[in-house]
Amino acid sequence: MFLVDAMTGLRRGELLALRWSDVGWLNREILVERTIIKTGANDGAHKYDYVVGTTKSGKSRRVGIASIVIQSLRTLREMTDPVSDEDFIFTRSGTFIDPEYFSKWIAL
User: How many CB atoms neighbour CB 23 within 10 A?
Assistant: First the structure.
């Protein structure tokens, strides 16, 4: 996760919203077309929730990635054995990693 982030400069939400289908294996690029955004919760128990939304600019973009990133992603894919290409790359219990959890526990 940190290698992809360091080599691409993606925003935290963009990184956490990546799906396997976003990886251009042959072109060595990542398609960035979504991010994790904070929104008001409607469950009555929480003030807010995180959902998948569009990027900050509202536009998708392609980011080139180095061979080492492709190799690392291949290894991660083999280790995690995703069910589908629509699975999140960096997942926790089948969904995206909560950005606050990421900042508080993983990034430390």
Answer: 22
